[in-house]
Amino acid sequence: MSTTETSAPDRPLYPPKPGGWRRHQTFISSFGIFAVLAVLPWFPLLAFTGTFDTGNDFGAGNMAFVFAFAAAAVGFNLLVGYSGTLGLAHAGLFALGAYGTAILTAPAECLDFDTCDPVVREASSGYGWPFFVALPLVCVAAAIIGIVVGFPAARLKGFFLAIATLALGELIVTIIRLDDDVWSGLKTNGGTGKQVPIFRFWGAGPVTSAYYMALGALIITFIGYVILTERRLGRTLKAVRDTEIATGPIGISATYYKLVAFGLAAFSASLAGAAWAQNSAFVNPASFRTRLLVFLLVVLIVGGLGRLWGPLIGAVFFVYLRQELQSTQKLLFLLIGIALILTVLILPDGFASVPDRIRDSRWAQDLRKRFKSVGVK
Amino acid sequence: MDQLLQQIVAGLEAGSYYSLIGLAIVVIMKSTDVPNFAMAEMGLVAAYVAWWLSDDAEVGLPFALAIIIGLVFAAAFGAVTQFLLVRPLTGLSNQPLAVFSSLAFGFVMIDQIRERGLPAFIDWIPGLGGGYPTPIAVLLSIALVPISYFILRKWVKKLDVIDHFPLLLLTIGLNFALGSIIENLWSSTPQRFEAPWSGETFNVGDTRIGVDQLISISMGAAIALILAAFFRSKWGVRMRAIAEDGSTARMLGINAGAVSLIAWALGTSVAGAAMILNTSSTVLELGSAEGLILKGFIAAVLGGFVSLPGTFAGGLIVGVAEAVVGGQISTSLQPTMALLIVVAVLLISPGGLSREAKLREV
Amino acid sequence: MMTTTTTGKPAPLELDDLHVAFGGNRVLEGVDLPFKPGFNGLIGPNGAGKTTVFNVLSGYVKPTTGTVRMEGEDLADLSQTGRVKAGISRTFQSPKLILDATVMENTLLGRHHLFKWGHLSELLMLPQQRREETEARRICMDMLDRFGLADDAHKDTGDLSLGSQKIVEVCRALVADPKVVLLDEPAAGLGADDVTVLLAGLRELVAVQDLCLVIIEHDLELVTTMCPEISVLHFGRIISQGTPAEVTSDPVVIEAYLGHGFELSEEAEETAGESV
After folding, report:
1. Cβ contacts from A onto C, under 8 A
2. Complex ipTM above 0.85?
3. Is it the case that residue A145 has pLDDT exceeding 90?
4. Smallest CA–CA separation between A234 and chain B, in Å?
5. Contact A246/B at CB under 8 A
6. Please, do chains B and A touch (3+ CB pairs < 8 Å)?
């Protein structure tokens, strides 16, 4: 141990990073993966596996669903995994993004009023805003609503908070559904559902546009997540999660940070929902019920709670399974159920933790000792 | 205001189901600290068994006998589930789980390989077009069974912190799996499950009330009373002890294993009773449990997860509010009542309705 | 009634006629505790209410009656976070740390309330935020170095021994620029080496800044050597207050807590002469 000089120059203030390319490992691997995903539509190799292909778009449609679910799961990860708050209104906030953009971007009326069937008119009418004006507004509005939903967090703990937020999420979906039934003016077209005008990127087809929209949503949420969790917000949220009782005397308002987490999660959920709507082309209250929340939970848990790549891995797993077992719905739920059970039993940190588990396992450590490498993991 | 009495009775009936499921959830939570999302589904399995045994279906036993056996099945089912799935997570041996699951896996594999061949991602093995002959299926399964046994035995880890969240996820998975199993064993079409009193009604003034409604309500109350008495008894105290602090309870000589099994058996029978009453009054179908589980949790939350009277009252309040608001104002508002009530109550009283309810950390 | 120190300034921290009751359970009764700058000891048997005093000071518990004053200012209206800004820091009997974060990150939490640049600037990666963060890290590193933990700064806190973890918590409390630091059994569970390092570090700090330290401890040797001023709490009441010599020879204290046969070490007798 050296003497007690202050500000010794050899004491690194930031964790020392390994030299060379490993220094930017996260950045490089993320960039690489997203670059591959960005050019995937031009190399339809997904079709060859026969699993993602839905017949006419070489799997891009399904991949768009993967990205949308993954984006939603990233926000969910921040809320549940990082700040340890069981805020289960995610499905409702996802619905807000989907419906919000659908309503705001739908044309104000049918182009040819006379030949417009009243039913069709309802299903496709809106306010006619441009997509990229509506999107940020909807996301910010959803973030605010997310914060409101999170207010009970000040007084409720654990399971009670989970049920309260679950109920609030369901309420959002119910409000959407009851339009035209109990009140009107939201233009959600109630339980029948609404068509979603699809934003086309520079003349690309609807599926390809949806693909890039969803990929964009995922990249944005991913980058936000990485930046925030590596820095001060990440450790503050962890403090709220692990040392909540001590946060007051440290000067951290646990309630404030939980609300921040709620807001951020809501923002990403609505962004993901908007992207999902672009892919699905039709929104309907039934798609956003508690079952969706459970699916998001499955995506998050099987992928890996609190892990960087957890959401993406979980989303791939889920969409693959859904696609594979389309013909036998009952088997789908059985497998999802078993997957969840097995995950909790064997891989509580999800698939994303497999590399770490292998690295930390006994036989890997023995191997390392065998090769006599110089200690650093 | 007409039909108000009818709506109240209907509300009490629905509320009884919510309360009973809620009570089942609280029993298991109070004693083994597991939030069981599959509670209603487990009860539904028992209801299906009872139906299958009764004279509406194959076996043809008289109604009373069928439901008694169904309830016994429910108790056994609950105990077995706790034994196989929950115990490994709390640090006890995972051997029973490994053995049971591997064997089950083996049988299912045989069945599936015979029918459908191999799954798509490895079907580059030359297939025999959709199905494999039995001997090959058996051979493949025999190869896979030890592997799955080994995996389960080696890698099922005790949870570091017995947290509610993983246990909740476990039961969510169970919920899905059970739904599928029910669909596979029995079909997905709705069934009639007739009680001897089905369809009979009587009149109170102008209102027509079904006998089944009355029976559901009174059975609900009776079960709640029995549970309350039970929890004051020796066994009830033991149950609360192991939930509070399992290891200390064990040191004091309480057989935590036996108490847990009894708790799960008890809880599942209550859920079974709830589902039998529900499905004989309405209809027996796959979706019967899905709507109830959330309302059951809401009832449990209203009781603070600890108070049996609070849960019972909570369930009834939700049921009546739904029915009355739905009938008097608008049926569309019905689904929102449960949600509004739980949010309102939690905001006012974070621990639920009961005075005894404490905030439980999850 | 406010007390002043020998230099005439108001006491850095004082409790005035404090009563705390939980339901019918009276935990603190009529507690008058004027703390002096430097080391103050708070001792007494288990259940006497010592941690409750800390909980009142931190803002977890509202006293039924009585006032808490810091440098003359009544703290009653301040929230928990408000008290940190006013200058009160504390540690806990069992350390409350994030086990899967590094020692540096845990210590940095102490600087949280002093940050001016918020999270939006963090998201936008503004250089001012980065500078503020680096400066905070420098301060934390210096503090860790003072207590011999500089080499462990980037290790996972969960990998450290319990003793080291407790010292990390002390560092976290100290980097918050506090005027008053409440240490709840800081030496419990620490090995002799760790205790030496901890106490040496604290002594250095007290020598260079105006700090009021209140230490709850069961180790009488430690308390009598470190604290020129000791208060004894017994069943919610202060039964004795004064220098180590005074307190350890007080018959009430001997009867209630010390037992006969406790002898003050030489070092302790020296400390007694150092009262401010």
Report:
1. 105
2. no
3. yes
4. 21
5. no
6. yes
* Residue whose C-alpha is closest to residue C162's, from C194, C207, C206, C120: C194
Residues in chain A within 8 Å Cβ distance of C59? 248-249
pTM for the whole structure? 0.84
Nearest CA in chain B to A357: B155
d(CA A223, CA A220): 5
Contact A238 C98 (CB under 8 A): yes
**pLDDT score recorded for residue A266:** 95
Residues in chain B: 362
Query: Domain end: C156, C177, C198, which one?
Result: C177
Q: Scanning every residue of chain A, which has its alpha carbon at the shortest distance from the alpha carbon of C138?
A: A13
Asked if C145 and A238 come within 8 Å (Cβ–Cβ), the reply is: no
Q: What is the pLDDT of residue B357?
A: 46
Q: Is residue C93 part of a domain?
A: no
Burial group, residue A182, by CB count within 10 angstroms (0-12, 13-18, 19+):
middle
Contacts of C153 in chain A (CB under 8 A): 11-12
C contacts of A260 (beta carbons < 8 Å) = 119
Size of interface A-B (CB pairs under 8 A): 146
Q: What angle do CA B72, B75, B79 make, to 5 degrees?
A: 140
Q: Is residue C92 part of a domain?
A: no
| Banded model confidence at residue A1, pLDDT cuts 50, 70, 90 | very low
Residues C120 and C199 in one domain: no
The answer on C200 and C71 residing in a single domain is: yes
Query: Tell me, what's the pLDDT at A274?
Result: 92
What is the pairing mode between strands C180-184 and C212-216?
parallel
Same domain, yes or no, for C197 and C81? yes
Q: What is the CATH number of domain B4-94+156-348?
A: 1.10.3470
> What is the C-alpha to C-alpha distance for residues C203 and C226, in angstroms, rounded to an integer?
9
| The C73-74 sheet, strands edge to edge | C25-35, C13-22, C65-70, C73-74
Residue A337 has its nearest CB partner, among B175, B298, B360, at B175
Q: Which of C129, C155, C177 is the last residue of a domain?
A: C177
- Vertex A161, ends A157 and A164: CA angle to 5°? 150
Q: What is the pLDDT of residues B180-215, one digit of tens each?
A: 888 888 877 887 777 777 777 777 777 778 888 888
Q: Which of residues 102-121 of C touch A (CB under 8 A)?
A: 102, 104-106, 108-110, 112-113, 115, 119
Q: What is the mean pLDDT of residues C104-123?
A: 85
* A326-333 long-range contacts, CB within 8 A, separation 24+: A330/B180, A330/B183, A330/B184, A330/B188, A331/B180, A333/B176, A333/B177, A333/B179, A333/B180
Chains interfacing with A (3 or more CB pairs < 8 Å): B, C
Tell me the per-residue pLDDT of A67-78, one tens digit each, with 9 for 90 and over.
999 999 999 999
Range of the domain at C197: 1-87+178-276
| Domains: count for chain C | 2
Which domains, from first to last, does chain A contain? Answer: 49-371 (1.10.3470)
C182 and C275 assigned to the same domain = yes
Q: What is the mean pLDDT of residues B16-28?
A: 93
Statement to judge: residues C165 and C198 lie in one domain = no
Same domain, C56 and C104: no
Alpha-carbon distance B21 to B6, whole Å?
Answer: 23
What residues of chain B lie within 8 A of the CB of A174, using their CB? Answer: 335-336, 339
Q: Is C137 on the interface with A (CB under 8 A)?
A: yes
Predicted local distance difference test score (pLDDT) of residue C127:
85
Q: What local confidence, expressed as pLDDT, does residue A117 receive?
A: 63
Instruction: Say if C109 falls within a structural domain.
Output: yes
- Residue C198 forms part of a structural domain: yes
Put simply, the answer to whether A334 touches B181 (Cβ < 8 Å) is yes
End-to-end CA distance of chain A: 23
Average pLDDT (C200-215) is: 89
CATH code of the domain containing C208: 3.40.50.300
